[in-house]
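Run log, item B.
One chain of 104 residues. Sequence copied directly from the ordering sheet:
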Amino acid sequence: MSSYRTEVQNLNYNAATRSFQALVVFHEGRETRKVPISAPLPITADFKDVSTTLVARAKAHRAKGRALLMARSSAQKAGKLVHLNDMIREFKTTMGLGDIHSAA
């Protein structure tokens, strides 16, 4: 069963533009989409209102195809867990560095 959740990261207030800015992250099964977004709201706005507005704006951007930041590895697509040493070995092989000794 796939899991879906949304989180607001790196929330800050930009006084110059009088808006809240954040990175809204959509976790959709094995994919993660990140949408940088802002919303013109007063600094006194309640966190719930701010987060709701940011998520709604991010969903609208995603629906219009503007959510371009996406993380999805081949191991995630296959549903496998990724071990750090395996990733290092794969990187070294790809870069032609397989003869360099390391812990991986």
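Observations after the first pass:
- Residues 73-77 have pLDDT under 50 and may be disordered.
- Residues 47-63 form the longest helix (17 residues).
Flagged for discussion on Thursday.
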